[in-house]
């Protein structure tokens, strides 16, 4: 039980760091205009409308990579329930996507659709890859 809880917590931390890191990279590649106040919704809406599709795709990539990496870490730490812990990490990513859609409905629909469809399969794949490999018995 303790490994399961630790796996989820470590997976969530990894997921958060992966998403933040990729989004930070996105801000380096596609910097916001100087003087942008992220606390003003109108300015964020204008920024969103001006972003190229590649910048928005990088956000979706961040969500999927966060679900994958966080799911992998969670499954490695909690091998008794790899799909469960990886799925919990993916569900947190999906909850964040829902929050983003509710907070700023101007995001393109494809971002929301991909953000809701891809994290679970990514986490499932990660949990499959995280399984320890069995070594053949010595000859």
Automatic annotation (TrEMBL):
<keyword id="KW-1133">Transmembrane helix</keyword>
<feature type="transmembrane region" description="Helical">
    <location>
        <begin position="7"/>
        <end position="30"/>
    </location>
</feature>
<feature type="transmembrane region" description="Helical">
    <location>
        <begin position="110"/>
        <end position="130"/>
    </location>
</feature>
<keyword id="KW-0812">Transmembrane</keyword>
<protein>
    <submittedName>
        <fullName>Uncharacterized protein</fullName>
    </submittedName>
</protein>
<feature type="transmembrane region" description="Helical">
    <location>
        <begin position="50"/>
        <end position="72"/>
    </location>
</feature>
<feature type="transmembrane region" description="Helical">
    <location>
        <begin position="84"/>
        <end position="104"/>
    </location>
</feature>
<keyword id="KW-0472">Membrane</keyword>
């Amino acid at each position: 039980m303790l490994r399961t809880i630790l796996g989820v917590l470590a997976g969530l931390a990894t997921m958060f760091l992966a998403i933040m890191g990729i989004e930070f990279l996105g801000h380096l590649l596609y910097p916001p205009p100087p003087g942008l106040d992220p606390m003003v919704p109108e300015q964020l809406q204008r920024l969103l409308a001006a972003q190229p599709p590649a910048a928005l795709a990088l956000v979706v990539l961040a969500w999927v990579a966060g679900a994958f990496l966080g799911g992998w870490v969670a499954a490695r730490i909690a091998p008794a329930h790899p799909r469960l812990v990886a799925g919990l990490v993916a569900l947190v990513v999906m909850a964040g996507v829902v929050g983003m859609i509710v907070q700023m409905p101007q995001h393109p629909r494809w971002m929301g659709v991909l953000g809701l469809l891809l994290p679970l399969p990514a986490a499932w794949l990660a949990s499959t890859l995280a399984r320890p490999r069995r070594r053949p018995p010595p000859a």
